[in-house]
Give the backbone structure.
Amino acid sequence: MQENLFLYNSLSRKKEKFTAIKPPFVGMYVCGPTVYGDAHLGHARPAITFDLLFRYFQHIGYKVRYVRNITDVGHLESDADQGEDKIAKKAKLEQVEPMEIAQFYSDRYHRDMDKLNVLRPSIEPRASGHIIEQIELTQKIIDTGYAYVSNGSVYFDVEKYNQKYNYGKLSGRILEDLYSNTRQLDGQDEKRNSFDFALWKNASPEHIMRWNSPWGQGFPGWHAECSAMGHKYLGEKFDIHGGGMDLLFPHHECEIAQNTIAVGENSINYWVHNNMITINGQKMGKSLGNFITLDELFTGANKVLEKAYSPMTIRFFILQAHYRSTLDFSNEALQAAEKGLARLLKGVETLQGLKPSKENNFDAEKFRQDCYDAMNDDLNSPILISNLFEGLKTINSVATGSEKIDEKNLNILKETYNTFLFNVLGLKLENEDAGNNEMLEDVVNMVLNLRLSAKEKKDWATSDFIRDELTKIGIKVKDTKEGFEWEI
RNA sequence: GGUACCUUGGCCGAGUGGCUAGGCACCGGUCUGCAAAACCGGCUACGGCGGUUCGACUCCGCCAGGUACCUCCA
């Protein structure tokens, strides 16, 4: 097991050596999607980032329990007059059961993530399936005196909490500053202080999603689910909590406050946050309406897209930037990723066919170590990828005979590419579309064979005619030594 | 307004107090009947102004521009 993985901890604002609470086990909780719409490019970032971490942990020998929730209740709409539940609002609109909406979008979320080769988490709990746990959490906080009941709702007493603990330690905020700089929101009269947050919300008569509780019918507050489910499945103390940077405040700050009262201080060791994907320099987000769904990316069905991009192109694009940097979307960048990935995968194919020599002028062990070093340094996937591109030079040089590699080094090289490109980065070969239309394939091959015999007779007019006509239809012909290749 | 962060070559994107990341594009070469593809090679950038230093893209200060969070958001 590698023992020198460093991760950036949002809590300490620096890279820290990762030490598991109970090796070889690792408990990791990541904030998942609110299922009331299709997943967009922004959702792919945390999914892929924590998939990378999940995969790497496993590769270096940890047994990971990875919990990623599905939020199907609890989030309020800020723009709605009465604070309707997001899921419920959508349900009314489409005249279906709220759970139908949640199911529909969960399924689509899974479909998109599967395409991106994101591994399913070990446990994927739903907020609606853990109402009891959230009620228990709320009761526990009331019992300790850090929450109060008001009008059938329960609020966390941030002011009181802050006297003993530090509210704002994760996001670097100071409560006094927050008071002076916040704007007035509706429905604040139930609260003692504006920064108190709901553990449980009283449901208005028209609110569809509601459950019985000691405080009347209602639904859980915004931050309760992660605390309740995280600790249920990972214990009072666990290793990692992840999510997008936009959740740092207030979501994760509130979670820390809840956890501190409910299970004790420092219940989570490492807080890991991925940065945002931007478009034209601005955050891609639901509320800004500037998002592109993954489905649109895969099919090309969005005006801003010049073409469709395959799931692996999206994955590679995201991995080519470090997870804590913003990543700017553009067609140009995506196309660059697409070409780069294709070259990399081609190189791996070449690698499989390399023959070892007696001589050797490549240090594969150093190469392998460089790859581990990149990952150990806070999951530096861009550096890892650049290493893999560097290795391509050797692969191609060996293939053309200008460099030599012996069996031992060749085996290490193969193993390194296999490990990092496929297992750790989670990339895979994509089946070409042509494969699912056998008749087309046969026809094109036949035509190109005709062209080949024309070429043998040096009948350039015919051979160029065939190529030009195929190009017009949209089939790109590439001549090779053995004959030809083509793609649509 | 408060807090934090960012500004790297045509584009994307790493990183470092001295040792040209990488990808894409572009240019040259090899190959090819031609072309494409592939491969090889070239392309030496770090917002502005000061300061610290033998030396700064890297540290400090100021300025400019941008972003995020402060409300649901990955």
